[in-house]
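Need fresh eyes. Consider my entry:
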Amino acid sequence: MPLDQETIRRITRRGVAEIIDEGEFTRLLQEGKPLRLKMGFDPSRPDIHLGHVVGLRKLRQLQDLGHQVVLIVGDWTAQIGDPSGQSVTRPMLTHEEVVRNAESYMRQFFRVVDRAKTQAVWQSEWFGKFTLADVLRLTSRFTVAQMLQRDDFRSRFEANRPIAITELLYPLLQAYDSVMVQADVEFGGTDQKFNLLVGRELQAMVGQRPQQCFLVPLLVGTDGSKKMSKSLNNYIGVEEPPQEQYGKVMSVRDDLITTYFELLTDVPDGELEEMRQALEGQGQAVNPMLLKKRLAREIVAQFHGQDAAGEAERHFEQLFQRGELPQEVPTFSLRTSLAKWGITREGRRRLRLSHVLFDAGLATSLSEAKRLLSAGAVDYNQRTLKGDGPAEELRPGDVLRVGKRRLVKIVE
């Protein structure tokens, strides 16, 4: 049965950057035959954040129409790593690390995508049998000039910065994945456009129907400027606790509210347009805080349920809107720091505030603790601490807070 135009519009327009070729993709949808929807992932990191969820939601929409997802675990390329040193996202991993990361990734993947309609395959199933002759045959189909059409390769080449031969192989290996699973559609962010197009070309070369390239927008992170990424620490993880998820969503810039609603929720388009107009000063006025709280509830409920979303909202209002302390605050004893650093109260060496921040888990290192203190990012009993002074003034019952969500109560 042909799909109605509203369903087609929802799939091809909302949360979509580009589809190559959109006309052909729509025709395939209308045919009603199950399509093989390819998405690969690099298991060098074990976690999924909301940036990944943008594409996963599209996969789920198509699964609900009867199509099958083919999830490719890039275990073979992950064990090669990136010998050029140009990429921080491709460290060389052991097989055990790859398996552990893949298991974590897939657990989170299936929070969005239907496991029953997903085929998971490991790249090593075909690359594990590759010989040098296979590699040469694959590389003979493309030229260096074609590879330099990729933006980051071209810019580094023009700047006379090194590009490892291995790096040039990665788009070919990803393309070969499409051939092996006979992908009808491959999904990726806009930064993957070149690689997806290489897959399309290679399939045509070997006589397969070229895959459609389904590109989704890159979600801007909580810093409001760069794409969401764990390495930039501007991410919201799908397995983070409800209160952490809620608080991070509340830190998103106001001008990103409707984008987050569009890409991560099922709020109707008509409501989205009303939100846009209200935030731009057209139509009925609205408090951005109220919209953001609704967004936070929607996202937390997706991964933790409605009850958890409600509790996270109450926690946020108590802690940040009314300035009250939550019922359960982590505690920290100064004796822990004194013992760790071998400092006695009678000795000449003093316990510093940076020691306490680090030991209490409010900073990841002493140097970060000192930076936080210098920047005035540490709050002590609702007063800003400046500089890495002695910790002698800290008393039982005092509260140390870093940023909005990290705090401890000092105990004896």
Notes: The longest strand covers residues 36-41. The mean pLDDT is 86.
